[in-house]
Amino acid sequence: MSDLTTAAAAEPRLSDGAESIRRAAERNAQAVASSPGDGQGTAVTRVRLRPGLACDVEDGPWRFTVGMSAKHGGTDAGPNPGVYGRGAVGSCLAVGYGIWAARLGVPIDALEVAVHADYDARGELGVDESVPPGYLAMRYVVTVQSPASEAEILRLLDTADRFSSWRDDMMRAMPLTREVRINGAAVG
């Protein structure tokens, strides 16, 4: 028995709350379809660097810590940014699959997304200009336990992938700008 099968047997079915998820998703889709401005905004997350390459992250009511390992000069205060980045991609995909399973009526007993990211640290450390500092490639493996047919599951996954915000962020180049303030004054 795989770990996912064991987890599925030990927990409530993921589709147990499907009707409330479906109603919420449909209500939200209808709201932004009739009033597009209601679905637009700017999210702001604040990150403060602390000693030991630790960061306090704050977004609304949420607080968590990001850190670097001793290997990188840090104090192991928390998972590193890569863990959170991969976690953001994987959890966005998983949540999207859950929403679309509810919307499409596809029962899911268990679902896992494993995010793989290939890197070459020479780029990030500035020792080889030909190597990019970020990931060289990313891929994800979706493992599903479901009584639904393969065709239904693939339709669900394809639909959810098409509307996944983090998947889109990773696949589409978008503007990223920097503003600088030094001692309270804007620079540049």
TrEMBL record:
Q: InterPro entries, alphabetically?
A: KH_dom-like_a/b, OsmC/Ohr_fam, OsmC/Ohr_hydroprdx_reductase, OsmC/Ohrsf
This one is known as OsmC family protein
